[in-house]
Amino acid sequence: MTRNATTKKANRSNSGIIAGLNKGFKTTARQAKVSQKARLGLPKKRLRAVKAIIADLVGLTPMQKRVQEMLRVGKEKRALKLCKKRLGNITAAKKTRARVEDIMRKQQTKK
Length: 111
Prior knowledge:
- This protein is mostly helical.
- The chain has helices at 5-11, 36-40, 45-58, 62-73, 76-87, 90-110.
- α5 (76-87) packs across α6 (90-110).
């Protein structure tokens, strides 16, 4: 059974002795800088605000309108299947369906 060298290294600390299990020069672990790639996925407040304003002004997309009609009739599963086919993955489809359900709920409370 082989062990991963990185996990092995993380578990032990060097003692400064030339031989033995913890051999090696004593070093202090430095925290790695967060890469640009990792920061790309973080949520952005300004972008969220802009999208919310645009959604309020423009309204629902044609796909969201179809999903809304399906939800009114009571075809939740069919609405999810439509979203999945258009968006390509189930997680995004569930989020879209939930967003449309929230919009419908808000419309009901306004009346």
